[in-house]
Design goal:
alpha+beta; seven-stranded antiparallel beta sheet; four-stranded antiparallel beta sheet; 11 strands; globular; iron ion binding; 2-oxoglutarate-dependent dioxygenase activity
Amino acid sequence: MTTTSAALDTPYDLAPDRVAACERDGFVHLPGVLDPDVVRRYEPEITEQVIELNTMHLPMAERSTYNKAFLQVGNLWKHSDQVRELVFSRRLARLAADLLGVEGVRLYHDQALYKEPGGGITPWHADQYYWPLSSDRCGTIWLPLQETPLEMGPLSFAVGSHRFEYGRDLPISDESEAAMQVALAERDLPVYNEPFALGDASFHLGWTFHHAGPNVAADPRRVMTIIYIDADMLAAEPVNHHQEGNLAATLPGIAPGEVAASPQNPVLYRR
């Protein structure tokens, strides 16, 4: 029987056409990235950390659109050795490097994103709006911790949206949702929205616009994400206050123009 450690180190069998699809479309949905039993091993610990570290306790009706979308807890790897095993997985890091077409990747940070029952939409947005990074060689593995049917609000993607620049100045908000609905319709970009089986994961680039529907199911939509950057990525001069905060919090001690190599950003895989 394959051990959990081996399962997190063994390379994923990534077909070349999936790499091409990611570069063409800005994302890829991959089956069987982890064995379901491996996911089941880590879900209870991730959930326990989310409960312990979550700071959002307002009733749903009193929250902003952003806070209705999910409970958001970052850098769980610092709080749990077990979560660290998953976040530092060579299997996942190599997969990210292969999809980005780079020699190696660093950890930018991790995030658990739990959409509670009754949780609202995740508005259209592109993650890299928030990141002070010098290139587009960055992306996110989105790993659901349970089967995720459409009623739970799986992540959906605007196909090819990483290649146009409209909306890159919009934070996640009601305004980004409305503006991007119009922009995507005008450009006739298709939207990919499919359920995820347990063990499936997606990978999307930093400038790929994505969205999620509300969770109308009885159970929370539990998701772990890991954000990767090119191992040789340079920090960039922040262009908004969100990036200023990210530079200080996520790349501590790193100045614009320097390699994004703080102690919080270890190399997780290099060829």
